[in-house]
Task: structure prediction
Amino acid sequence: MSRNDSADYLPSTPAVEASAGAVPAAGHSRRILIIVENLPVPFDRRVWQEATALSAAGYQVSVICPMGKGYEAAHEIIEGIHVFRHPLPRERRGALGYLLEYGAALFWESLLTAKVALLRGFDVIHACNPPDLIVLVAAPYKVLNKRFVFDHHDINPELYAIKFGRKGLLYKLLLTLERLTFALADVSIATNASYRDIAIKRGGMPANRVFVVRSSPDSTKFRCATGVHQRRRDGKVVVGYIGIMGDQDGVDGLLRIASKVVHEHGRDDIDFVLIGDGPELQRLKAMAERLSLNQHVRFTGFLAGEALLTELARIDMGVVPDPKDEYTDKCTMNKVMEYMALGKPTVQYNLTEGRYSAGLSALYARPGDENDFADCILRLADDPKLRQELGKRGRLRFENELDWRFEVPHLLAAYETVFATKTSSAT
Result:
């Protein structure tokens, strides 16, 4: 799962304007097909925000994505956007598991792309990785003078190297796919400055064709449930985590840190709530039990909408336990900006992009030092004024610099470049 993965935090209840069946063909020439594999839409916050922003700007938008819990319809129209979904095997491990998942995804993406081409048409394929295989779906349409936009959510070569501890044949294959993706892309959209550098230096893209569009929450939807925190009267300090429960997300490290806080420092007044789901959830629950943390660590599982915002409103600080490595140091963690949007202070390791996002709203532990991370939690737990001050700084930075409304112009500028290129090529 991508570190830039995005959850649907406050779904409206959009009216479905049509069901599966015939779809009218497009009548204008600014038609976009977005393809995303790792999350369904509109659950994928970033992709849905991009789709709705483009639609509001007058583009005709279609989306291909996998099905997921609560998103099983093969086709529906939400807020004027046609969403086509396909089945996909999940939670597979090992080479065979990846082969099955990616093979199935390529089959369905290719089939649905052809379907959209016939029923609605498109002028641009907008591919959201991971994986970088979506370029294989888009490549044949380049011959037909379709544009290709690469929305760079994840740096897969680095993720592979960290996840499997080696840089062998598959690592080289991932680099090759990445280079092919950048080579065919008319424009690349990067989630942060580190990814922009990769597009330019490793991908060989011209700097004027790489646009940074951060995965920021939308302040009109992502807001604290009112009065929840004020209703807490248990005297506990609550440390919150939201994210994927995977084997490279640092949640096992967070449990060791929780053990230090609770057992080594004897802090019965500090609890931890872990929000999210993932392939390691059951193993992490068993680990919490082995560490005798059942009275202090609560796993909520998957949450969305008001349930998620209510849970986040109860926390006193957010944590980002991702360890520092060549992958995480370049990644923007969505949870950082989500904590900031809700006015919550953050504890995290000192990572390049993490520090850029949080700025002065976080305490930074020395990378790899779980004792220092625990000390940062204790410092915030014992200083309500510091929590309030850091939370206020984060909220102000979010409101003035990181809100989604600041990213929309960059997204639209990227598309103006795409269509300017198409126009000049045609002439």
Notes: The first strand starts at residue 31 and ends at 36. Residues 1-27 have pLDDT under 50 and may be disordered. The two ends are 42 Å apart (CA to CA). Residues 94-119 form the longest helix (26 residues).
